[in-house]
Amino acid sequence: MNIVHQPQTTPSNYPPENLSPDQLHSILTQIKDYQTNHGSLLKVIGSETPHSVHLQPVSTSVFPTVFSRRLFNEAVDDLQLIYNELYCKLAEDVEWLYAVTGPLRRTEPLVDALWHVYEEIQRRRQDYGSQYIEQKIHAGVFRSDYMLHVRSDTTIDSDDEEDENWTQNLCLKQVEFNSYSCAGGCHADKVAGMHRFLARRGLYDFASSSEDPEEQSINIRILPSSLPQNNTINGIASVLASAHKTYGSKPFSSKASHIAVLMVVQPNNFNIADERPIEYALWNWIDGEPIPTYRIEWQQILHHTQLTPTGELLFFPPENGDSTITQPVEISVIYHRAGYEPHEYSEDINGKEIRTRLEVSRAIKCPSILGHITTIKSVQQALTGPGALERWLTKEKAGRIRGTFVEICSLGDFMSSAKNPIKDEELAENYILKPASLEGGGNNIYGADIPAFLKTMSPEGSEKSAYILMERIRSPLNVYGMLMSSSRGVTADEVVSEFGVFGGCLWERKESSSEQDKCQVIMNRVIGWSFKTKEVTVDEMSVVKGYGCFDTPYLVD
Amino acid sequence: MNIVHQPQTTPSNYPPENLSPDQLHSILTQIKDYQTNHGSLLKVIGSETPHSVHLQPVSTSVFPTVFSRRLFNEAVDDLQLIYNELYCKLAEDVEWLYAVTGPLRRTEPLVDALWHVYEEIQRRRQDYGSQYIEQKIHAGVFRSDYMLHVRSDTTIDSDDEEDENWTQNLCLKQVEFNSYSCAGGCHADKVAGMHRFLARRGLYDFASSSEDPEEQSINIRILPSSLPQNNTINGIASVLASAHKTYGSKPFSSKASHIAVLMVVQPNNFNIADERPIEYALWNWIDGEPIPTYRIEWQQILHHTQLTPTGELLFFPPENGDSTITQPVEISVIYHRAGYEPHEYSEDINGKEIRTRLEVSRAIKCPSILGHITTIKSVQQALTGPGALERWLTKEKAGRIRGTFVEICSLGDFMSSAKNPIKDEELAENYILKPASLEGGGNNIYGADIPAFLKTMSPEGSEKSAYILMERIRSPLNVYGMLMSSSRGVTADEVVSEFGVFGGCLWERKESSSEQDKCQVIMNRVIGWSFKTKEVTVDEMSVVKGYGCFDTPYLVD
């Protein structure tokens, strides 16, 4: 008897434990070779010379990890468009943003730098003559990250492995919202393509013999239809393409030869495979003409750009040589993949001037400086306040996304509380301490480490305002996976995944008497997703450190 | 004044010498990043572990190297179809092949192994009952390699840099013809895609200031139209797809689940990026259904295959685990990328049995054992004999390809000659000594090294029959290039290129009274090309050693 086990629930024998060495070797080899041939790679840090570089595969799951189909669809079909709308509107609500993040300027250099740039832009715009043209249209490539959460009215029963409906008790909880320089989209696209290929290739078809004559051959088979398609590379490119088209069809400046997208990047990025595919997609843009796309390192911007009196940003590509001879390019869209670290705004590289020049220009910014400020953690915290969302959203929409919030507090809120996780290690287990100004998991303090960490701080509390406390998400138990990374090898263990949905927007600043009504959304799309998995015993989702692995959700009902 | 220099002749200032460090850095970075993202890579030997591997870019030219458009077209549009026809016919002319290569069996283990396999197949076929079905259709993926040659009636004038018509005095001369396990097609495809992208990207547009006010800005621009497209990956896949379709639409054996192509490879190949893309192309085959394609290492074949009494080759993919449970696959086409080295036929791995099992099966072989034997160097030599080609080709076709031959002799021919390059170092300069049984440049002895090498041999001459002497091709002077490789860095020097044309064929063995008339060509196509460039001061074209670099011809009239 030959049964194809196409699970409606979490498969208890997945990934299979009885792989032969031949099978495992074959799967691992196919993964490494696929990654080699499709650029699912990282540069080995320190290996690059003018003529060569060493590369290694990015961390990836060996098997796609189970995830709820219902919640995947909810995030993609429903939540993301509301989140996109919210963050477009936040990005034009300067009054509210300043109220929430302004207090951090005193302790947080990055927050201070961003507001400094904002203020400088307002001054410059007034200095310009009447000929200066302000760009009122902005673009965004956002990513909202979720984890599966066991509803608090559900008992977690670790012995209940045969639970037929494990996804029913689950909901999505937001880890964070990123509105600036969202990474991982290209890797997620390639790894999903890989898992879908390997499934089509039959590598996830498993046979196992059984004592029971009725089940002499039980097969597990992951059908490619259980693995969602991922076109995030083209998705991100499509936002930039739309912005490019919105800018105009030809240069406004008579000096420029053509218009182009400019991708601003950090120097010597070892994660080039998460950036270049977007350039290639635009140069190969099939939905119309190819879209010229250039790339400049953050600290080289002042040397290679000029502003015209009317605000156009002229760019002199380094590869074109002598800028006294060659014609510049007029930049239509600035796509930020740098400028999110405090040192990038330091005096020695004139960092605030770099950002100011880009920001004051007529180019469409992806995103604007205010769009950037929305990514600060204290914004996420403020949105959890009672009635906060209704400032921009209908009650119905507000309700939908409020369901994805966990409790987020400032440390001050807890100081006066009886239940104080700051001092109580047992209570602290339910929390994560995150910097209020930064995104990303690398700077977090987890659970029981919180009280000891806080003791290192001065008692007056100015440092403490730089942190928020976030309730820990209760991930479902008994989800197993097999992960491989260059630094940590192959591991088979209980795992937890993070699901990110990419959104793409264009919006325009309108004149209005009320602050919360100055944004008109022009375009609002879901453009892709990413899915990362780590062992439950590890706190960080860092891919660079080999903890987090790019993955594909294996959707089950 | 702005002149676009689209050269009709060899551009004397190409590649440009006055690149700024910024320009060169940008071009080299774009090349490395493109190669990273498109799998134009080699595994670093010794770096692979179960969970990781290090990769580095394959050697490549920084700038496309000039080549004659007329001769490119001649090789692709004209010569290759004749060469394809010739080698299909050779591969069924066992009498002639044995006369030419049989004498090498005594000294050459590889030649002896191939004929041993051929003879064993004849015996086995007779042992089978009447139910056995012989596969009479064979496939070939060939590659004919050429270099530019200055006609001998032309004076080479090294000072004549301004020669307006340098391509007029050039013709193509064949370096070798490969009919077995032709490599380089995937790399050539990717590197051509890269150079075309970089041209489109504007990286080969150069401006230089001039003292002359009339030419204040002279631009060089390589238009993508000067760089031919290369679709060799799909080209090779298309031959296998045609063979697969020719085999049948479903398994002949009731035991098998489906039919599939089997790619036979060497173990632990660091050059995986030249093999895997063909598998991916077949699994993603868009011209019809996906074509299942498996891969097996040479020494694992006996363990993972079975022959049915009627001759079908059943394959048990290692990734499917326990072969007592899973259904085998029936192999439609065997694509050889292994079995070309003497040690692969050794007793300890039962190598002759490996090849015999594949060969006796009903699968279509790409190519057959006789097709393999045609790649022996002494065949190339024999074809240069007076009237030799007319055994299979019309006088007109024979004349066309005879024009690409250089003088090839056995050492014996020279022993009695007054002009004996074997002893005379000056004469030896005009020759290359090549093993009569092997293909590939790694085993050659060049020019002045020949006399000393021959002195190491025994006087009776049995070893000497293992070598042929080939006239050296007189490459045009003053072709410059810039090359980059992981092992040798970036070099700018005078260069020489080798142009290979890929052909794809299907043919059928017919009953006929005459040996030379037993082949009916079913399909004859040109499926791609490769182009490799090295410094003139280096003899070998080895890409692995970093001498030869994948390149794209920059076609000039």
From TrEMBL, chains A, B:
Residues 260-373 form the Glutathione synthase substrate-binding domain. Pathway: Sulfur metabolism; glutathione biosynthesis; glutathione from L-cysteine and L-glutamate: step 2/2. It comes from the Eukaryota. Keywords: ATP-binding, Glutathione biosynthesis, Ligase, Magnesium, Metal-binding, Nucleotide-binding. SUPFAM superfamilies: Glutathione synthetase ATP-binding domain-like (SSF56059), PreATP-grasp domain (SSF52440). Mg(2+) binds at E439. This is Glutathione synthetase. It comes from Talaromyces pinophilus (Penicillium pinophilum).
